[in-house]
Amino acid sequence: EVQLVESGGALVQPGGSLRLSCAASGFTFSTYAMSWVRQAPGKGLEWVSDIRASSVTHYADSVNGRFTISRDNSKNTLYLQMSSLRAEDTAVYYCAKDGSFYMDVWGKGTTVTVSS
Amino acid sequence: EIVMTQSPATLSVSPGERVTLSCRASQSVKSNLAWYQQKPGQAPRLLIYRASTGASGIPARFSGSGSGTEFTLTISSLQSEDFAVYYCQQYDNWPLTFGGGTKVEI
Fold it and tell me: Do A101 and B91 touch (CB under 8 A)?
């Protein structure tokens, strides 16, 4: 069974940093692209970033230069390093497996709250 | 950036009804469109990809159609478990973008 389990969400002050992790199992992690998608409270879905199997990365304009996506294929783990956090980054962050640029499996999410 | 617009924002329906949700892209995305269902407190679930291909395990009452800029998700006979928010997403170009969602409620 394909599983994605996010962790690392927390309450952080504006300007702070945080690293999210997503542990993957049940599929050959290294051969799939992976994405992060977020959802602010009461709002819709917003794609944040993806990393291809080749390690090529893409970012939404809203996080470009502040967030860094990476992967450790030896640990079957996806990461999102977030810095210079803002109140508008408050959201549930989902990790998702890439079907072919769409997201075919999602984790349950981890909550990031940016507040003083 | 390709803007995805869903309509209506909210749809009030009864179980057993046929439901049609719309999604429009600001420019052609060919058939590179997916639909997701999200229930309260849950992660989204993939329903349809490539505009009309059902994802694994999705009931046959869900179907998708369209190409270019106009897309439709149809639920042939709404079941109680189908009350949720539905999102479309284009994957023709980065940044990947979602529509604002359609809430299907009683």
Answer: yes
- Provide φ and ψ at A3, rounded to 5°: -135, 140
Residue B54 Cα distances to A46, B35, B84, angstroms: 23, 9, 18
Torsions phi, psi of B21, nearest 5? -110, 145
What pLDDT, in 10s, does the model give residues B27-54?
A: 999 999 999 999 999 999 999 999 999 9
State the Cα–Cα distance between residues B26 and B2, nearest whole angstrom: 6
Of the partner residues B34, B94, B100, the one whose CB lies closest to the CB of residue A44: B100
CB pairs under 8 A between A and B: 58
Q: Residue A87, SS3?
A: helix
A105 touches chain B (CB under 8 A): yes
Asked if the C-beta of B99 comes within 8 angstroms of chain A's C-beta atoms, the answer is yes
Rounded to whole angstroms, the Cα distance separating B86 from B82 reads 10
